[in-house]
Design goal:
single chain; globular; alpha/beta; Rossmann fold; 8 strands
Length: 280
Amino acid sequence: MSKIISIHSFRGGTGKSNITANVATIAARRGRRVGIIDTDIQSPGIHVLFGLDEKRIDRTLNDYLWGRCTVEEAAYDVADIASASDRLPDRARSTPAASGAILEMGEGEVAVMGGGIHLIPSSLKAGEIARVLREGYDVGVLGDGFQELLRRLDLDCLFIDTHPGLNEETLLSIAISDILIVIMRPAQQDYQGTAVTVDVARKLEIPRMFLVVNKALPGLDFDDVRGKMERAYGCEVAAVLSLSEDMVRLASGGIFCLRHPVHPLTQGLNAIADRILEGG
């Protein structure tokens, strides 16, 4: 059965888009047909991670929302682009079947996407962003688009990269999701906002919800961090991800799990995928 997965954070700068792109890629490499919608219309950018050239983008989510095209006409197959732009720099080893996203690959080899990835980007044109800020759009059309995309592209998983905070379109995305992943940093600025998000999600009766603690300093006791967050929010922590110099060095120039398939950070991203994909 198809799943809608919203990946959300109350504040910006949590690494939400990077996590979305990587976990979606892992799902595709495990044979799932994957869609990703960038609903962060005010500050889009996930297409950059997949190497989708702006010159190739002639239809976006904005065009669908304003009736200029169907939602599938705004979908781009980025699996081959991501694979070709992420030739591996070092020899990768195979991993246990439980984290079967990683195939054995050598230097320069391309990671094969078993299912496929379709990305619906939002527009980067200043005029389009200004129109959203000025006029808004019919949020109901967005919800219809999610369901239509699942049917038309026969998707197993639809990942929604949400806008930070809680606004009308974000609440809609969360409300119709099968799984909500809430990204937070181990920082005071994120604690209260995460509590609000978790509380709202419970009131919306989201079937499954997980926390992901991102950008934790390597010197921290991750088991201790996990335990504290689970006790504070009453919610399972799917992974505690370390602040990684390798991720910073990549600078949004590709999909991290393809560049570094045996990296500890990739192991954490696989753990998130495990929780999302279990049972289906």
